[in-house]
Amino acid sequence: MSTPENTPENEPQEGFVDPGLADHRPRRADVEPKANKRAERQVAALFGLSVVGTVIALWAYFTKDAGDGGDVATIQSVNMWIGLGIALAMAGIGFGAIHWAKTLMRDHEMVEERHELRSSDEAREGAIQNLKDGAEDSGIGSTGTKRRSVLKGSLITAVAIAPLAVLVPQIGNMGGDWNISKFRHTLWGPGVRLARDPDGELIKASDVTMGSVFHVIPEGLNDLDHHHKMVEKAKAVVLLVRLDPADMKPVAGREDWSFDGIIAYSKICTHVGCPVALYEQQTHHLLCPCHQSTFDVADGAKVVFGPAKRPLPQLPIAVDDEGYIVAQNDFDEPIGASYWDRLKGDGSSADVEEGSH
Amino acid sequence: MHALAKKRHHKAAPLLLVVVLLALITAIGAFSATSATATSEASADDIADGERLFAANCASCHGLDAEGQDGVAPSLVGVGAAAVDFQVGTGRMPMQASGPQAPAKPVQFTQEEINQLAGWVASLGAGPAIPTAEQVDPALGDAANGMEVFRTNCAMCHGSIGGGGALTQGKFAPSLLETTPTHLYEAMLTGPQSMPVFNDANVTPEHKRDVIAYIDAQRAGSPGGLSLGAIGPVSEGLWAWLLLLGLIIASTVWVGARSS
To answer: What is the H or E stretch that residue A217 is in?
Structure first.
């Protein structure tokens, strides 16, 4: 490699040239007594700042009552002052110490060479010889004079079955329930009434005025015990809206699934299952908060933006004799995100339909 | 290559970085919705005054008979006094410029004039009335139940404590922390702009008051310190990744730099 002095400025070259060590440049604090004094004062000031920070933190703790009588605003200000005080106390010590070392402590350059990554040839040969000697000595290697086949076999057995101690409990804890068909079914069924989330009040068709949005659970969900309630709620939640029937685009085969502009869709996103609930009344767009998938409620909940691949499943609804909104049936396809078995069996009908849009 | 190597050690760079970051954070903090005060007096209004005010200030878009114009402004027949009190009382109307959504801005009318306008619009067709002081009194509501109702119906757009959030294509759900109880009630009842309607069969008047009590309980602030607008990971991430990480990088550069 050529030295920098020999290289004309305009000649193209590979990479950076090692500029070597710069000449030693004395710091100002080394040559000017005034600068030295100033640096000393700066360091002392930083340590003093740390003392001030400690005092602030203690002052905040002792003078501001954050106990039982403290309201949210007091707790906020106590937390803030204690935090600022501790930050100042720590930063003062740290910055002071570094400033001290940089400006006042000894200043001379040292060169510490990197060692070669590759070991020497002797060390490499020695390591290989050690391995060979070990194999010979244990009798595992085929060239050995004493064959230890019993030890060899028992070692292999022990190593092979040791992972079972970890794997068996893990697989066992997944539970004995491998019935994935339950993902296809929710609490909805013929005649199940729609109820308000969270209090379970039933919903009449006359309650759902134009532009309304209702967050809906199936009737009777709140009677389940807590665990089953949560499991079933996660699958069954529905969003109910009323649109102007003139704005709605009919979906083939679903002409009688809505009632006078009242339409219900699963609230579980078909992307990864977040609750899709941001409803823009004027655009009829339904937005998922997790990844911004957007569904057009007026057009079969078709995906208009974002990573979701399928429309939201529609809950077929009707109105019973007493005026309450009821489900005609369960969803005709699995709700929520795609999963390994979704395309097989009866769940595939919706995917075919999506292709025909 | 030499020029590049020299530029890598500009002394002012860390300082400049911190200054730029501080400016960014400040600019973001400046976006806070303003809201006006309003009292809900019973409108012993002069409907004729309301009609004159409407003709002078609203009719250019909504039409002299308030029936709206296609693609310009909606019909106001049947929207009720509550919608007028909300839209005009928060300064959203009269709209200053067309855009994705009409933002709150300084109120253009006195409460008396708003009541006159509301009285005239209410006379065009039946609609929700302005709620009474008792209906919106946070002290009478149950904040715990309000949280449950808010979490189910409101939090997805307005955020878990009502700090607001983004919607699509420039639209947004505004912060509720500065909104008056009356305007909160009216917004639920009438569903302004992108917001859906939460009629009394969906969120009962008692539940609406509970929601107001819950929002009122959030106004005292967050015990955890800076809430950064309570709009979630966007402002928090910006703070952590740009400002805090910037400070750490600046400190590291200072630690490694040779003293002059």
So the answer is: strand A213-218
